[in-house]
From TrEMBL:
Top-level lineage group: Bacteria
Protein's organism: Nonomuraea purpurea
Domain Aminoglycoside phosphotransferase: 24-248
Record Pfam families: APH (PF01636)
InterPro entries in the cross-refs: Aminoglycoside_PTrfase (IPR002575), Kinase-like_dom_sf (IPR011009)
Listed name of the protein: Phosphotransferase family protein
Length: 311
Protein backbone atom coordinates (compact mmCIF):
# COMPACT_ATOMS: atom_id res chain seq x y z
CA UNK A 1 0.00 0.00 0.00
CA UNK A 2 1.31 3.44 -0.87
CA UNK A 3 1.91 5.64 2.19
CA UNK A 4 0.85 9.25 1.61
CA UNK A 5 1.78 10.55 5.06
CA UNK A 6 4.27 13.37 5.38
CA UNK A 7 7.73 12.58 6.70
CA UNK A 8 9.65 13.93 9.66
CA UNK A 9 13.02 15.46 8.85
CA UNK A 10 16.10 16.50 10.80
CA UNK A 11 15.82 19.96 9.19
CA UNK A 12 12.61 20.65 11.09
CA UNK A 13 14.09 19.44 14.37
CA UNK A 14 16.97 21.84 13.80
CA UNK A 15 14.54 24.64 12.93
CA UNK A 16 12.60 24.17 16.16
CA UNK A 17 15.85 24.02 18.14
CA UNK A 18 16.77 27.42 16.69
CA UNK A 19 13.37 28.66 17.84
CA UNK A 20 14.28 27.63 21.40
CA UNK A 21 12.64 24.20 21.50
CA UNK A 22 15.73 22.08 22.08
CA UNK A 23 13.74 19.04 23.22
CA UNK A 24 11.72 18.84 20.00
CA UNK A 25 10.98 15.35 18.75
CA UNK A 26 8.71 13.76 16.11
CA UNK A 27 5.24 12.98 17.42
CA UNK A 28 3.00 11.91 14.53
CA UNK A 29 2.57 12.20 10.77
CA UNK A 30 -0.48 12.25 8.50
CA UNK A 31 -1.54 13.27 5.04
CA UNK A 32 -1.91 16.94 6.00
CA UNK A 33 1.46 17.27 7.69
CA UNK A 34 3.91 16.17 10.37
CA UNK A 35 3.56 16.92 14.10
CA UNK A 36 6.40 17.63 16.52
CA UNK A 37 6.35 17.69 20.30
CA UNK A 38 8.14 20.82 21.52
CA UNK A 39 7.69 20.56 25.27
CA UNK A 40 6.27 23.20 27.58
CA UNK A 41 2.73 22.15 26.65
CA UNK A 42 3.22 23.02 22.96
CA UNK A 43 3.25 21.00 19.74
CA UNK A 44 3.97 22.17 16.20
CA UNK A 45 2.34 20.99 13.00
CA UNK A 46 4.21 21.39 9.71
CA UNK A 47 1.50 21.60 7.08
CA UNK A 48 1.82 20.32 3.55
CA UNK A 49 0.55 22.82 0.98
CA UNK A 50 -2.27 24.34 3.04
CA UNK A 51 -2.65 28.11 2.60
CA UNK A 52 -2.44 30.34 5.70
CA UNK A 53 -5.90 31.82 5.19
CA UNK A 54 -7.49 28.37 5.64
CA UNK A 55 -5.61 27.94 8.89
CA UNK A 56 -6.79 31.30 10.13
CA UNK A 57 -10.34 30.15 9.43
CA UNK A 58 -9.61 26.90 11.27
CA UNK A 59 -8.33 28.99 14.16
CA UNK A 60 -11.69 30.76 14.30
CA UNK A 61 -13.53 27.43 14.20
CA UNK A 62 -11.43 26.21 17.14
CA UNK A 63 -12.38 29.36 19.04
CA UNK A 64 -16.07 28.83 18.21
CA UNK A 65 -15.86 25.31 19.63
CA UNK A 66 -13.97 26.41 22.75
CA UNK A 67 -16.77 28.81 23.71
CA UNK A 68 -18.93 25.85 24.70
CA UNK A 69 -18.35 23.60 27.75
CA UNK A 70 -17.22 20.11 26.76
CA UNK A 71 -16.10 17.12 28.83
CA UNK A 72 -12.87 17.02 26.83
CA UNK A 73 -10.31 19.42 25.38
CA UNK A 74 -10.14 20.48 21.73
CA UNK A 75 -7.29 22.05 19.72
CA UNK A 76 -6.18 25.64 20.14
CA UNK A 77 -3.83 27.34 17.66
CA UNK A 78 -1.45 29.60 19.56
CA UNK A 79 0.50 30.99 16.62
CA UNK A 80 0.81 30.61 12.83
CA UNK A 81 4.02 31.28 10.92
CA UNK A 82 5.51 30.53 7.51
CA UNK A 83 8.98 29.16 6.87
CA UNK A 84 10.28 28.92 3.31
CA UNK A 85 6.77 28.61 1.93
CA UNK A 86 5.59 26.04 4.48
CA UNK A 87 2.99 26.90 7.10
CA UNK A 88 3.69 25.93 10.71
CA UNK A 89 1.13 26.09 13.49
CA UNK A 90 1.99 26.06 17.18
CA UNK A 91 -0.80 24.47 19.18
CA UNK A 92 -1.67 23.60 22.73
CA UNK A 93 -0.61 20.04 23.59
CA UNK A 94 -3.61 17.83 24.34
CA UNK A 95 -3.43 15.10 26.95
CA UNK A 96 -4.49 11.48 27.13
CA UNK A 97 -3.78 8.43 25.00
CA UNK A 98 -5.48 7.31 21.77
CA UNK A 99 -8.69 5.37 22.35
CA UNK A 100 -7.04 2.60 20.36
CA UNK A 101 -4.53 2.37 17.48
CA UNK A 102 -5.59 2.93 13.90
CA UNK A 103 -7.06 -0.26 12.44
CA UNK A 104 -4.40 -0.24 9.72
CA UNK A 105 -1.77 -0.56 12.46
CA UNK A 106 -3.51 -2.89 14.89
CA UNK A 107 -6.98 -4.13 13.95
CA UNK A 108 -9.47 -4.41 16.82
CA UNK A 109 -10.82 -7.77 17.90
CA UNK A 110 -14.31 -8.92 17.05
CA UNK A 111 -16.00 -7.70 20.24
CA UNK A 112 -16.59 -3.98 20.76
CA UNK A 113 -16.01 -3.06 24.40
CA UNK A 114 -18.49 -0.98 26.34
CA UNK A 115 -15.66 1.34 27.35
CA UNK A 116 -14.90 2.16 23.73
CA UNK A 117 -18.52 2.60 22.68
CA UNK A 118 -19.30 4.70 25.76
CA UNK A 119 -16.37 6.98 24.92
CA UNK A 120 -17.59 7.40 21.35
CA UNK A 121 -21.13 8.16 22.52
CA UNK A 122 -19.79 10.75 24.97
CA UNK A 123 -17.92 12.52 22.17
CA UNK A 124 -20.84 12.38 19.74
CA UNK A 125 -23.32 13.72 22.28
CA UNK A 126 -20.98 16.53 23.31
CA UNK A 127 -20.15 17.70 19.78
CA UNK A 128 -23.86 17.69 18.94
CA UNK A 129 -24.39 20.46 21.52
CA UNK A 130 -22.17 22.93 19.65
CA UNK A 131 -24.14 24.99 17.12
CA UNK A 132 -22.79 25.35 13.60
CA UNK A 133 -21.24 28.77 12.99
CA UNK A 134 -20.53 30.92 9.97
CA UNK A 135 -16.84 30.07 10.18
CA UNK A 136 -17.66 26.34 10.09
CA UNK A 137 -19.84 26.91 7.02
CA UNK A 138 -16.93 28.65 5.27
CA UNK A 139 -14.63 25.63 5.55
CA UNK A 140 -13.81 23.48 2.55
CA UNK A 141 -13.79 19.74 3.04
CA UNK A 142 -10.60 18.08 1.86
CA UNK A 143 -10.40 17.64 -1.91
CA UNK A 144 -13.11 20.16 -2.75
CA UNK A 145 -12.61 23.52 -4.42
CA UNK A 146 -15.10 25.67 -2.51
CA UNK A 147 -16.71 26.02 0.93
CA UNK A 148 -19.18 23.19 1.42
CA UNK A 149 -22.09 25.52 2.24
CA UNK A 150 -21.53 28.02 -0.58
CA UNK A 151 -24.82 28.47 -2.45
CA UNK A 152 -26.78 26.25 -0.04
CA UNK A 153 -28.95 26.75 3.00
CA UNK A 154 -29.33 23.06 3.96
CA UNK A 155 -26.61 20.56 4.84
CA UNK A 156 -28.08 17.64 2.83
CA UNK A 157 -28.16 19.80 -0.32
CA UNK A 158 -24.61 20.99 0.26
CA UNK A 159 -23.42 17.41 0.75
CA UNK A 160 -25.24 16.29 -2.39
CA UNK A 161 -23.38 18.96 -4.37
CA UNK A 162 -20.04 17.76 -2.93
CA UNK A 163 -20.86 14.20 -4.02
CA UNK A 164 -21.63 15.37 -7.55
CA UNK A 165 -18.40 17.36 -7.78
CA UNK A 166 -16.34 14.47 -6.43
CA UNK A 167 -17.87 12.09 -8.97
CA UNK A 168 -16.56 14.31 -11.75
CA UNK A 169 -13.00 14.43 -10.38
CA UNK A 170 -11.92 10.84 -10.97
CA UNK A 171 -15.23 9.08 -11.53
CA UNK A 172 -13.83 6.86 -14.27
CA UNK A 173 -11.33 5.41 -11.81
CA UNK A 174 -14.05 4.69 -9.24
CA UNK A 175 -16.42 3.30 -11.88
CA UNK A 176 -13.83 0.69 -12.81
CA UNK A 177 -14.21 -0.76 -9.31
CA UNK A 178 -17.85 -0.02 -8.39
CA UNK A 179 -20.58 -1.47 -10.65
CA UNK A 180 -23.34 0.94 -11.71
CA UNK A 181 -21.54 3.88 -10.14
CA UNK A 182 -23.46 6.53 -12.11
CA UNK A 183 -26.78 5.15 -10.89
CA UNK A 184 -25.46 4.95 -7.34
CA UNK A 185 -24.41 8.61 -7.44
CA UNK A 186 -27.81 9.67 -8.79
CA UNK A 187 -29.66 7.70 -6.10
CA UNK A 188 -27.47 9.09 -3.34
CA UNK A 189 -27.87 12.68 -4.52
CA UNK A 190 -31.64 12.33 -4.80
CA UNK A 191 -31.89 10.70 -1.37
CA UNK A 192 -29.77 13.43 0.24
CA UNK A 193 -31.89 16.18 -1.24
CA UNK A 194 -35.01 14.43 0.06
CA UNK A 195 -33.80 14.45 3.68
CA UNK A 196 -35.69 16.77 6.04
CA UNK A 197 -34.13 19.78 7.70
CA UNK A 198 -32.16 19.00 10.84
CA UNK A 199 -30.28 20.83 13.54
CA UNK A 200 -26.86 22.09 12.41
CA UNK A 201 -23.93 21.49 14.73
CA UNK A 202 -20.17 21.21 14.45
CA UNK A 203 -19.03 18.12 12.54
CA UNK A 204 -15.51 16.83 13.20
CA UNK A 205 -15.76 14.40 10.30
CA UNK A 206 -12.77 12.18 11.16
CA UNK A 207 -13.32 10.58 14.57
CA UNK A 208 -10.99 7.67 13.93
CA UNK A 209 -9.78 6.10 17.22
CA UNK A 210 -6.40 7.92 17.31
CA UNK A 211 -8.24 11.26 17.22
CA UNK A 212 -10.08 10.50 20.47
CA UNK A 213 -7.81 10.58 23.51
CA UNK A 214 -8.84 9.06 26.85
CA UNK A 215 -7.50 8.98 30.39
CA UNK A 216 -6.55 5.88 32.37
CA UNK A 217 -10.22 5.28 33.17
CA UNK A 218 -11.21 5.38 29.50
CA UNK A 219 -12.95 8.75 29.68
CA UNK A 220 -12.46 11.09 26.69
CA UNK A 221 -10.11 13.93 27.60
CA UNK A 222 -9.29 15.33 24.13
CA UNK A 223 -10.51 15.29 20.54
CA UNK A 224 -7.79 16.03 17.96
CA UNK A 225 -7.35 16.82 14.27
CA UNK A 226 -10.41 18.72 13.16
CA UNK A 227 -10.12 19.62 9.48
CA UNK A 228 -10.37 16.57 7.21
CA UNK A 229 -14.16 16.85 6.80
CA UNK A 230 -14.93 19.47 9.45
CA UNK A 231 -17.97 21.62 8.74
CA UNK A 232 -21.34 22.60 10.15
CA UNK A 233 -23.85 19.84 9.53
CA UNK A 234 -26.30 17.21 10.66
CA UNK A 235 -25.03 15.52 13.85
CA UNK A 236 -26.31 12.25 12.37
CA UNK A 237 -23.62 12.62 9.70
CA UNK A 238 -20.98 12.69 12.44
CA UNK A 239 -22.41 9.52 13.97
CA UNK A 240 -22.59 7.79 10.60
CA UNK A 241 -18.99 8.51 9.69
CA UNK A 242 -17.73 7.61 13.17
CA UNK A 243 -19.42 4.22 12.85
CA UNK A 244 -17.83 3.73 9.43
CA UNK A 245 -14.25 4.76 10.24
CA UNK A 246 -13.88 3.14 13.66
CA UNK A 247 -12.50 0.02 11.99
CA UNK A 248 -11.62 0.54 8.34
CA UNK A 249 -9.14 -2.25 7.68
CA UNK A 250 -9.58 -5.03 10.23
CA UNK A 251 -11.00 -8.51 9.55
CA UNK A 252 -14.25 -7.62 11.37
CA UNK A 253 -14.68 -4.17 9.83
CA UNK A 254 -18.04 -4.88 8.20
CA UNK A 255 -19.43 -6.29 11.45
CA UNK A 256 -18.19 -3.27 13.39
CA UNK A 257 -19.72 -0.76 10.97
CA UNK A 258 -23.07 -2.50 11.21
CA UNK A 259 -22.93 -2.82 15.00
CA UNK A 260 -21.93 0.80 15.60
CA UNK A 261 -24.50 2.07 13.11
CA UNK A 262 -27.23 0.16 14.97
CA UNK A 263 -25.94 1.36 18.34
CA UNK A 264 -25.76 5.02 17.35
CA UNK A 265 -29.19 4.86 15.72
CA UNK A 266 -30.70 3.44 18.91
CA UNK A 267 -28.84 5.56 21.45
CA UNK A 268 -28.93 8.87 19.57
CA UNK A 269 -32.29 8.31 17.86
CA UNK A 270 -31.12 8.60 14.30
CA UNK A 271 -32.56 6.73 11.35
CA UNK A 272 -30.41 3.76 10.34
CA UNK A 273 -31.31 4.46 6.71
CA UNK A 274 -30.06 8.04 7.03
CA UNK A 275 -26.83 6.86 8.65
CA UNK A 276 -26.26 4.38 5.81
CA UNK A 277 -26.96 7.09 3.24
CA UNK A 278 -24.44 9.43 4.87
CA UNK A 279 -21.83 6.65 4.84
CA UNK A 280 -22.38 6.17 1.11
CA UNK A 281 -22.14 9.93 0.53
CA UNK A 282 -18.89 10.09 2.52
CA UNK A 283 -17.31 7.34 0.43
CA UNK A 284 -18.42 9.03 -2.79
CA UNK A 285 -17.01 12.37 -1.61
CA UNK A 286 -13.65 11.17 -0.27
CA UNK A 287 -12.55 8.21 -2.41
CA UNK A 288 -9.77 10.17 -4.17
CA UNK A 289 -8.51 12.40 -1.37
CA UNK A 290 -5.21 10.60 -0.84
CA UNK A 291 -4.39 9.78 -4.45
CA UNK A 292 -5.85 9.99 -7.94
CA UNK A 293 -4.69 6.52 -8.96
CA UNK A 294 -6.53 4.30 -6.48
CA UNK A 295 -3.27 3.17 -4.92
CA UNK A 296 -4.13 3.91 -1.30
CA UNK A 297 -6.02 2.09 1.41
CA UNK A 298 -8.70 4.75 1.77
CA UNK A 299 -9.70 4.32 -1.88
CA UNK A 300 -10.07 0.57 -1.42
CA UNK A 301 -12.07 1.14 1.76
CA UNK A 302 -14.46 3.46 -0.11
CA UNK A 303 -14.87 0.86 -2.87
CA UNK A 304 -15.69 -1.83 -0.32
CA UNK A 305 -18.23 0.39 1.44
CA UNK A 306 -19.90 1.37 -1.84
CA UNK A 307 -20.13 -2.22 -3.05
CA UNK A 308 -21.99 -3.32 0.05
CA UNK A 309 -24.27 -0.28 0.27
CA UNK A 310 -27.69 -0.29 -1.32
CA UNK A 311 -28.02 3.48 -1.76
Amino acid sequence: MVDYRQRHTADWLQYFAHRGYHAARPLAAGVEGAVYWLGEGVIAKVWDGRPPEDLNLTRQVYADIARHPLPFSTPEILMVEEHEGTVVTYERELTGSPLRPDSAVRPPGRDLTSGETDALLTVLRALATIPGTEAMRRLKVQGDDRPLWRGHTRFPDALAAVVERAAHRHGDLLAAHVPDLDAKVVRAVQALKALPDTSVTVVHGDLVPPNVHVDDAGRPVAVLDFGFFTTAGDPAFEAAITAAVWDMYGPYAEEHVAALTRLFAAELRYSQETLALYQTAYALATYDLFSSDGGDGHFRWCVTLLKRSSS
